[in-house]
Amino acid sequence: MTIDWVTIIGTIGASASVASFTPQAWKIIRERSTEGLSLAMFALTCLAFAAWTTFGIMKGEWALIVPNAICLVFALFILGMIAMPARKTEEVAETLDPES
Q1: What is the DSSP letter of 100?
Q2: Buried b (16+ CB within 10 A) or exposed e, 26-44
Q3: How confident is the model over 3-17, as a mean pLDDT?
C-alpha cells in the first residue's frame, strides 16, 4: 500500500482552513461583539472563497469546492455579524448561544 502524501497534505490544509474560522465565530457569539474585526478583510476573504468555490465548480474539483464553500459560509457569517449594528449582533449571538 502506497501513501498518497499529496492527498494527505491537501486534506490537512482543507481541514485547517475550515477549522480556522470556528474560533473567531465562537468568540463573536460568546462575547457578543465584533469589535476590532475588519469588515474589509472579511469582505475580501469572502470574495476569495467565492472565487475558489467557483473555480472548483468550473474545474469539477470537489477538493476545491467543498472546503472553500464551507469556509465561505463561515466567513459570510462573520462578515454579516461585523456589518450588523451592535444591538443586532448581540441578538443573533444570544439566539445561537443563550447560555453565555
Answers
A1: -
A2: eebbeebebeeeeeeebee
A3: 90
> How far apart are the C-alpha atoms of 56 and 34, rounded to whole Å?
31
74 touches 29 (CB < 8 A): no
Rounded CA separation 15/12 (Å): 5
Q: Do 34 and 28 touch, CB atoms closer than 8 A?
A: yes
89 contacts 22 by C-beta, under 8 angstroms:
no
Q: Give tens-digit pLDDT for 19-30.
A: 999 999 999 999
What does pLDDT average to over the chain?
92
